[in-house]
Amino acid sequence: MIPFKKENKEAIEAFKGLSKGRPLMPSNFNNEKNIEKIKGVYIPFWLYDLDVSGTVNMNANVVTTWTRGRTHYTKTDTYNVNRGGSMKFNNIPVDASTRFENDIMNSIEPFNFQELIPYNHAYLSGFYAEKYDEEGEKFGTITVTETADGISIEVKASGLKPGQVGFHLHEKNSPEPTTDANGNLVVGGGLGGHWDPDNTQKHAGPDGDGHRGDLDALTINDDGSINQVVISAKIKYGDVKGRSFVIHANPDNYTDEPANGGSGAPDTRCRA
């Protein structure tokens, strides 16, 4: 969350200064009873990270014409042109409340994410707070079935980045971002780390002696879809409640190297 920097009293004074000397303003607009109702509102936003890439293949013609004497000449040179590129976008805000017009929400941007802090209920004192009522984009479903030895996890999704990606059970189930020790925004930080009830503090893959939340990597098809079943004997059906299955953006090498990247990097794609 980004805390308010101004108290209600300061906001009221700013409003009075803004509306002062405007002869066409409705008379009740500056009514003291109405002004006293001014109160700050915390608005929920979803934050998205995007990796975009594309390629273009085309034929280009260069046409040259000239005249020599009574003869007109036309020369056409044809070239095959290939271009490609990629871009990365971080922290794209999308308002998560239907009660406010999008134009109003856009008017309060951009946000200074350096001021983002972990959620603290104390900051809500004296303010209103909207609850999100717009869900984030749905990529698919994860269905968990109890088995004799543990659980079976069926993953069906689309719109993902093709290739092998990390897949884990995380310890929490909050969509809220957090900040690291340097104050940098961590998207998906509210999900916590890999579920590690034995406190191994080690990422060792599904067959290793590390986190119990470490699962087999997923393989996303070339069209961005997946329909895969993952089996785990380390996780029981009752362990799942209140936690999150996370599909990461990058491959999982089942180690802690590189730091914060061996398990598929912290850029989560979806949760369940």
The largest beta-sheet arranges its strands as 5-6-12
Largest beta-sheet details = 3 strands, antiparallel
CATH C-level name of the largest domain: Mainly Beta
The CATH superfamily of the largest domain is identified as Superoxide dismutase, copper/zinc binding domain
Total helical segments: 3
- State the end-to-end CA separation: 22 Å
Q: How do the helices and strands follow one another from N- to C-terminus?
A: HHEEEHEEEEEEEEEEE
Task: Please indicate the count of domains.
Answer: 3
* Name of the CATH architecture of the largest domain: Sandwich
The gross shape turns out to be flat
Record field, number of beta strands = 14
Approximate strand percentage? 35-45%
Low-confidence blocks of residues: 266-272
Q: How much is the average pLDDT?
A: 84
